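Hey, quick one: can you model this chain's 3D structure?
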Amino acid sequence: MVKLDELLSVIENPARRRILEALAREPHYPLQLSRELGMSQQAVMKHLKVLEQYDLVRSYHEKSDLGGPQRKQFYPKLNFTIVVDAGPNLFTAELYSREQRGEETPKSEGPEELDLRETMVELRKRVASIDEKLEELHRQREELILEKESILYEAGRLADRLDDYHLRRILYEFISQPQLDLSGIARALEVRDEAVIDTINKWLDEER
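Sure thing. Here's the predicted structure for all 208 residues.
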């Protein structure tokens, strides 16, 4: 899985995002993308090469309907979510990967077995239901983020009483990253484990 910084550097380009959006809808040939997005085929191929390099798209060759040379078709390989929380007292950027589902072979159904209109309407309803649930989760998450930000504001206000910048920095990580042990905090701050342990122990002794 590509790292967060690398991924952000790739998808910050608007043209690549438009290509990924088109491929998420359905696989495309470079010429199709060029026509749909109003870009030169050379530019499309350049962006596809970058996306393929970072494992965001895949390609395969398909025989031409007219008996010509094989054509290269691209489709997405996307299975991640990026979450960025930013506020006066909070900044986090996380990359979450999702399990890639195996490709399913669609079942062949005759016209009598499939009402296209009813099926499409039902799928639309299911997507609407999922969107409602995601919106509710987003609302709940926003409330938790505001609460977390309030806690970190209070932590920062208390830390302002300390003169030592190094100590304030370590204590901020200590409070804001409760999932990390002291060694993890040291790695996050790129300092020696002993420096974090000694600093926190010294501070705790002074507070007693």
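One thing worth noting: DSSP finds eight helices and four strands in the chain.
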